[in-house]
Amino acid sequence: MKDDWKAAWQPLIDAVGQDFSGGQRTVGADEVSAATIRRYLEPLEFDCALHYDAEAARAHGYDDIIAPITSIQTFSLPPMWEPGQTIFASAERDAQPAGGALSGFKTPLEPKTTGYFATDYEVEYFRPVTVGDRLHRRGAKLLACLPKETKVGRGAFLTWESEIRNQRDEVVARMRTTWLRYNPPGAEQ
Amino acid sequence: MTGGTFQHSTGHSWEDVEEGDVLPTLHFPITVYRLVMAAGANRDFNAIHHNSEYAKASGAPEMYANNLFLQGMWERTVRDYIGLGGVIRKLSGFRMKVFNTVGTTVVVKAHVLRKWTENGNGCVEFEIRSENVDGVVTVGPGRIIATMPSATAPADSRRARQQENSMDFHSSRR
């Protein structure tokens, strides 16, 4: 049948509304720092003094340099590597490291896929993020699962909701991210 | 200002804004060098964003700009307009429809959709999109909501509002 491959996604479709985080939180690898904010600005050529000049930030009511709002997801990512781990085990040219900080939430309910990328993003910002803050992510609620065949292959659009909080457990932002997980044509579904 | 191009300077006020104002268009040439810098900066190391062969094997035509990099382009476009006193509160409709591939230029365009006041805050909603040089929309069109300081509020009041923003700039919308 033409649409048999979609059946593999049914367990995840049935789980829409469920929070898969188990109450666990994912802590950002590092404190927010002036150095990492500066590096975030560079490829964007983003010249906003709130992000590099503490005096300017204070003059506008902030305690210190603030992070760009679009960088808070970066600051909530876990480390790529931790002491004791081996993530680079192959010398093959395009070998990928084990894990990967920004790959979206995966559950055992979904079929195996090899490709993924984010397609949609929506976020509300509740509090500024300041130098010295340490962010973490909480919650992984599945809002939608839509199997679809696209130009890049067969897979599903998965929408997840989570919160980003600071070290005082204050909600900094609430975001919804949609990922397309798929197998390129010819790959095993 | 309606329909015109607003020349940004820091510190302009909510009263200066008119619905229909067009924000300055920004251009972001996408090179391999820049994509590598972006990956290092925003830590999206998915190889589809810095490895042509890997990207092509995944079904994309080339390596392409990542989500966070593209979001940052929108933020910069709006920040340049709202100035240091503005606060960005919400981003929505950020839908990546077409790959923004290496060797092309991302063109970000935005205009003021509406303005209003809410709990003493001057609010502005922008419609914003990314295009390629052929005018094809690659991201969006989405919306960004921001607040901007009022020129008519006394200085003490503006300062208090800014401090309130810093403490919890979204309390009125929870």
Defining key terms:
heterodimer, A: 189 residues, Thiol Ester Dehydrase, Chain A, 4 helices, globular, B: 174 residues, alpha+beta, 5-stranded antiparallel sheet, disordered N terminus, disordered C terminus
Textual characterization of the structure:
The complex is a heterodimer of chains A (189) and B (174). Chain A has 189 residues and is α+β, with helices and mostly antiparallel strands. In chain A, 12% of the residues lie in helices and 29% in strands. Chain A has a single domain (4-78, 103-183), classed as Roll (Thiol Ester Dehydrase, Chain A), CATH 3.10.129. The radius of gyration of chain A is 19 Å and the shape is globular. The model of chain A has no long low-confidence stretch (mean pLDDT 91). Chain B has a single domain (14-173), classed as Thiol Ester Dehydrase, Chain A (Roll). In chain B, 27% of the residues lie in helices and 29% in strands. Chain B contains four helices and five strands. Chain B has helices at 32-42, 52-57, 67-82, 155-168, and strands spanning 26-29, 87-95, 105-118, 121-131, 137-148. Chain B starts with 25 loop residues before the first strand and ends in a 6-residue tail after the last helix. At the A-B interface, helix 2 and strand 2 of A face helix 1, helix 2, helix 3, strand 2 and helix 4 of B.
Largest sheet of chain A: 5 strands, antiparallel
Mean model confidence by pLDDT of chain A = 91
At the first level of CATH, what is the class of chain B? Answer: Alpha Beta
| Derived structural class of chain B | alpha+beta
Low-confidence regions of chain A: none
Mean pLDDT figure of chain B: 86
- The count of DSSP E runs of length 2 or more, i.e. the number of strands of chain A, is 5
Distance between the termini of chain B: 32 Å
Number of helices of chain A: 4
Looking at how many chains there are and whether they match, the oligomeric state comes to heterodimer
What is the CA–CA distance across the termini of chain A?
Answer: 14 Å
- Coarse morphology of chain B: elongated
Strand content of chain B: 25-35%
Number of strands of chain B: 5
Which residue ranges of chain B are poorly predicted, with pLDDT under 50 across at least 5 consecutive positions? Answer: 1-9, 169-174
Element order of chain B: H for helix, E for strand? EHHHEEEEH
